[in-house]
Amino acid sequence: MGITNHTKSFAPPVDSGGKQNLIGLGFDELKEALVARGLEPFRAKQVWSWIYFHGVTDFEKMTTLAKPARDKMAEYFTVARPAVSKDQKSSDGTRKWLLRMNDGQEVEAVHIPEEGRGALCVSSQVGCTLTCRFCHTGTQRLVRNLESSEIVMQVMLARDALGDWGKETRLISNIVMMGMGEPLFNYENVAKALHIIMHGEGIAIGKRRITLSTSGVVPMIKRCGEELDVNLAVSLHAVTDQLRDEIVPINRRYPIKDLLKACRDYPGVSNARRITFEYVMLKGVNDSMADAKQLVRLLRGIPAKINLIPFNPWPGAPFECSSWETIEKFGDLVNAAGYASPVRRPRGRDIMAACGQLKSASIRVSAAERAAIDKIIKEKEKRVEGMFSEPT
Q1: Is residue 328 situated within a structural domain?
Q2: Residue 47 confidence (pLDDT)
Q3: Are 65 and 96 found together in one domain?
């Protein structure tokens, strides 16, 4: 089965007419919004359940509310979703949505199905402020942070599309903050969105089923653990500062030593709850047996597993994927040292939905535009270096 485009099955976005969208409001904020319009405070629990447990968007269907209350809700509020610019399905079942927000900016969200469950990869920014050399999103300029509502709406739109409301066995059982952007550079909105997603009387995806991935924003890692207590994944990808400076430029600000100390201090980390270190396998760059041995030395004492990621190509990418034989040998050495090192099976490559391939369609890249990509990367690296030179 090839790529399937489902775009036509979605209606165009509805103009809210100045009505307040309730998506993205915390429970107390929702209550305040209802009370401000003359509705009783106890209605907040009813509305919250209809929105986040049942997935209802039509106030008329919120039948536990009296008719006058439903009419008032419809007059002042809306329960909106982003518009779907493109909906693609991979030959392996992975599904990717290009979502257009109210201001016309677009982000991508990806559902990776497994038997009886599935993970939704969620974006936190339009574009990305980082310039990781192996990442397609890194060639796109940072446009803006996503609001908490726009993060939650990705989950809700995916559940709409998959028919995943009110089911005991969920198609979306896990959330991974691994889409476009660096979540810890948009922490306030990400945290608010995740609290809504974790709320026990709504979407109710627990903290043990949520993973936040960071490229290494060291000062925010402890706060993330204390306030969210979600699983942590760290994009490591290199075992020396010299190489990591080049392929993950944030390392120039927060080098490996500081990053690993933050990981050792991550609240709640234990052998039962390990940190995942993501390591993309780049041919001839970071895939030698010496690299594998150094990786083991670096992580000594940290409850961890290493996620080996075969490099997923994109147009004009400057790297190649390590051979399967090399990946297996690398993994065997790390496994022998006591660290689980599963190889992440590439999913959705045929629709550019695999790890490191997400990029808004508004800035699609062809091979002929490689020179423009290099220019963008160089300009961003200069800005990043300038940011790093500022006093803390």
Answers
A1: yes
A2: 97
A3: no
Indicate whether 94 and 47 sit together in one domain.
no
**CA terminus-to-terminus distance, the chain:** 52
Residue 331 in contact with residue 343, Cβ under 8 Å?
A: yes
Cβ(214)–Cβ(193) under 8 Å?
no
Two tokens, residue 106? 């677009």
pLDDT at 384: 41
**Residue 227 known to be catalytic:** no
The answer to whether residue 4 is domain-embedded is: no
Q: What is the CATH number of the domain that holds 164?
A: 3.20.20.70
Residue carrying structure tokens 């165009």: 12
Instruction: Note the pLDDT tens digit of each residue in 320-354.
Output: 889 999 999 999 999 999 998 888 665 545 544 44
Q: Residue 288 in 3-state DSSP?
A: coil
Catalytic residue among 75, 106, 108, 227: 108
Split into its structural domains, the chain has a count of 2
Same domain for 90 and 49: no
Can 108 be counted among the known catalytic residues? yes
Which candidate in 224, 263, 321, 355 is catalytic?
Answer: 355
Q: Which positions of the chain have pLDDT values less than 50?
A: 1-15, 348, 351-392
Q: Could you list the residue range(s) of the whole structural domain that residue 295 is in?
A: 83-388
Whether residues 317 and 173 share a domain: the answer is yes
| C-beta of residue 342 within 8 angstroms of C-beta of residue 308 | yes
Q: What is the pLDDT of residue 343?
A: 80
